[in-house]
Amino acid sequence: MWENSGIPCKHAVAVFCFNRQFAHESVDWYYSREALKLTYSGCINPVPEEHLWHEFAEEEIIEPPKKHPKVGRPKKNRRREPDEEPARAKFSRRCTNCRSLGHNSRTCPKAAAKGVSAIYLSSKEHLKWYIQSKWAMSTRISDSQGVFSVVGSGDVSGSLVILLSCLHGQHAVWGLLLAKCY
After folding, report:
1. What is the span of the domain harbouring residue 18?
2. 60-66: average pLDDT
3. What is the 3-state secondary structure (H, E, C) of 74-120?
4. What pTM did the predictor assign?
C-alpha cells in the first residue's frame, strides 16, 4: 500500500516509531505543504460574459453519430453461413407428456391426438401444493406400503382433473391429468 499511495501505512509508522525515526520523512513529496502551495499558486481567470464570447460557425460543431437501438435481444452466437451446418444440440429434449426424447410437450404427437396434457410433479409435497394452490381441491393423500397410490378426480371450470400415480420399476411418477370436457 505504501508503494501505491506514497503514504506509509500504520504498520510502517509503527516500525518508524520503534526505530525512533520520523514517519513524515518517508511520505512522498507530492503530499507535502510545498506541493500543495504550488498546486494553488496559479490564478484561474473568470469566464467572460456570454456576449463577449466569439462566434462559432455551424460547420465547426461536430455532433456525435446517432445511435439506433437494435430491435430484439442481442445475438450471442455468430451468424452461420447458409451452407454451414448448425451447431450440435448440447442437450436432448424430453417430453413431459410421454417421457420420450426428441420433442417437447408442445409438439407431442400423443397429446395432440388425445387432446390431453399431463403434468408430472417431482414429489408428494409438490403434488399436495399443486392441488391446494392451483386447483383448490381437498384431496387426501396417503401412503400404502411406502408407495403413493391415491387416485382422485374433480371438475374444475369445465375440465376433468384426474390425480394419478404409477410405479415404473423403482421410480414413482406423480401427475395430474387434465382432460378438457367438450
Report:
1. 2-39
2. 82
3. CCCCCCCCCCCCCCCCCCCCECCCCCCECCCHHHCHHHHHHCEEEEE
4. 0.22
Q: Is residue 72 part of a domain?
A: no
**What tens digit of pLDDT does each residue of 15-53 get?**
888 888 887 777 788 888 888 889 888 887 888 888 888
Q: From edge to edge, which strands make up the β-sheet containing 116-121?
A: 116-121, 171-180, 159-168, 152-156
Residue 102's contacts (CB-CB under 8 Å, 6 or more residues apart) are 92, 93, 95
Number of domains in the chain: 2
**Residue 88, in any domain of the structure:** no
d(CA 15, CA 26): 12
Residue 126 domain flag: yes
With a CB cutoff of 8 Å and minimum separation 6, the contacts of 105 are 95, 96, 97, 111, 117
Residue 12 in any domain: the answer is yes
Query: How many residues make up the chain in this entry?
Result: 182
